[in-house]
Amino acid sequence: MTILLYELVGADERRPFSPHCWKAALALAHKGLAFRTVPVRFTEIAGIENGATAKLPLIRDGDRLISDSFAIALYLEETYPDRPTLFAGEGGKAMARFVERWSQLTLHTFIGEAALMDIHDMLGPADRAYFRESREARFGRRLEEVPADREARLPAFRESLAPLRTLFRQQPFMGGERPLFADHIVAGALQWARVTSPFSFLAADDPVAEWFARCLDLYDGLCRRVPAAA
Predict the structure, then answer these.
(1) CB-facing half-sphere around the CA of 95: CA atoms within 13 A
(2) Alpha-carbon dihedral 206, 109, 9, 200, rounded to 10 degrees
(3) Which residues make beta-bridge pairs with 176?
(4) CATH classification of 3-79, choosing from 3.30.70.890, 3.40.30.10, 3.40.640.10, 3.30.70.20?
(5) What percent of the residues of the chain are helix, what percent strand, and what percent coil, each to the nearest 5?
(6) 3-state class of 12 per DSSP?
(7) If we measure between CA atoms, which residue out of 129, 23, 137, 133 comes closest to residue 72?
(8) Euclidean distance between the first and final Cα of the chain, in Å?
(9) pLDDT tens-digit profile of 118-172?
(10) Which of the chain's termini has less CB crowding within 10 Å, N or C?
(11) Confidence of residue 1 (pLDDT cuts 50, 70, 90)
C-alpha cells in the first residue's frame, strides 16, 4: 500500500518547502518505500485527516497516522527493519537527535529569518495573511525588518558550519560512505533554503555545498526535482 505524505506548499503546489517535510520525504525514499505526496497549505492543515495534526509532516501508512519528522523516521525504522537503515543502531538515533537540535538552533534560526520574506512571497493570499500575523507575533516586529541584516549575519552563519565542513573533508556523508537520517536532517534545512530563497547561504566551494549537492542527487534526484528559487 502506498504511504501518503502530507507536505507543506505555497501558492505553487509543486514546490514543497518545509524542512521537516523534506526530512520525512528523504526518510521514505531512503527506505525505498512507495509514497504519494499530498500538498497542503498553512491554512488547510487543520482540515486534513479530521484534524489529526496542527503541523506537518504527517504520514498515513494504512490505518496508522504519524506526525513529526523524527517520529516518522523512528516509525519507518521499526516498521520496515528489512529496508535500508536510517540510524544504523541506537548510537545513530542518539547522534541524529543531537544533529536535530543543532540544526534547529543553528540552521533553522538563521535560514528562517533570512528567508522570511521569500517564504511569505511564495504563499497564496490567505496563507500570507496567516504567515504575517503569526510571524510578526513571534518576532515582535514587522516581517520586512527580520531579514534586513542577513548579509551582515551571513559570515557568522557560514562559520557555524565548520564542524560539518571539517567532517566532509574526511567522508562523504555524516553516516560515513552512505547517508543516514542525520544527513537528511541537515539536507532538509538546506533544501528549505534552496526552494524558498535565491539568497546564497553557502559559498560554492564550501565542502558543505559539495555534500549538499550529493544529497540533492540521492534517490533519483528527489530534492533536485524541485528547482532552486530564482
Answers:
(1) 17
(2) -30
(3) 173
(4) 3.40.30.10
(5) 60, 10, 35
(6) coil
(7) 23
(8) 37
(9) 999 999 999 999 999 999 999 999 999 999 999 999 999 999 999 999 999 999 9
(10) C
(11) confident
Which residues fall within 8 angstroms of residue 61, CB to CB, at 6 or more apart? 1, 3, 4, 75, 79
- Asked if residues 103 and 55 have their Cβ atoms less than 8 Å apart, the reply is no
Q: pLDDT over 90 for what percent of the chain?
A: 100
Q: Which residue has the cell 549538499?
A: 212
Q: What angle do CA 177, 179, 185 make, to 5 degrees?
A: 145
Rounded Cα gap, residues 27 and 185, in angstroms: 9
Side-chain-side CA neighbours of residue 202 (13 Å)? 21
User: DSSP strand E in 62-217: where?
Assistant: 64-67
C-alpha 51/C-alpha 67 separation (Å) is 12
Q: What is the pLDDT of residue 53?
A: 96
What's the residue count for the chain?
Answer: 230
What the block records as the C-alpha cell of 75 is: 516509525
Instruction: Find out whether 24 and 37 touch, Cβ atoms under 8 Å.
Output: no
Q: How does pLDDT run across 5-33, given as a tens digit for each residue? A: 999 999 999 999 999 999 999 999 999 99
Quick: pLDDT tens for 26-57. 999 999 999 999 999 999 999 999 999 999 99
| Sole residue written with cell 517564504 | 119
Residues paired with residue 7 on neighbouring β-strands, in sequence order: 39
Segments of the chain assigned E as strands: 3-8, 35-40, 58-61, 64-67
Where exactly are the structural domains of the chain? 3-79
